[in-house]
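Re-run requested by the PI after the first attempt was lost when the workstation crashed. Everything re-entered from the original request form. Ligand of interest: flavin-adenine dinucleotide.
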Amino acid sequence: DRIEGKADVRLVDGRLLAFSGLFVASRCTPSNPLAESLGCALEETVLGLQIHTDAENKTSVPGVFACGDVARIPHSVSVAVGNGALAGMQIHRSLCWPETVLPLRG
Ligand SMILES: Cc1cc2nc3c(=O)[nH]c(=O)nc-3n(C[C@H](O)[C@H](O)[C@H](O)COP(=O)(O)OP(=O)(O)OC[C@H]3O[C@@H](n4cnc5c(N)ncnc54)[C@H](O)[C@@H]3O)c2cc1C
């Protein structure tokens, strides 16, 4: 039902479970509707809603790429930075050699 004090959990039946601390799995959603308004497919994950992409960071809309928290779990700085670098490479590739970029599948 709710958290009381520092980290005690009050159940809906009234029982109180005492803990020293709690780890919570928070859900995220894109803070901006840009991708959705462009028609990019979204997908549900255990950590919330994200933009559906493939291993090349393509979205379901040709020419639109997504990376970082908005498109990848787990959410971490190093994953987001690496994913951003890969997305940049894929965008470069799509501009220079568009014939090598296949549409996103699935
Ligand atoms: C409380 C908390 C603790 C965390 N601790 C860690 C940790 O210890 N280690 C770790 O590796 N990761 C941690 N993370 C996760 C990490 O912060 C993210 O994975 C990472 O910042 C994702 O980078 P990103 O560039 O994809 O997204 P973000 O860092 O969210 O960057 C997106 C940017 O886009 C901007 N933006 C949004 N809409 C618009 C718009 N319309 N126009 C212009 N700009 C816009 C936002 O303001 C933001 O600056 C933590 C996250 C949170 C919330």
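Saved to the shared folder this time. The radius of gyration is 19 Å.
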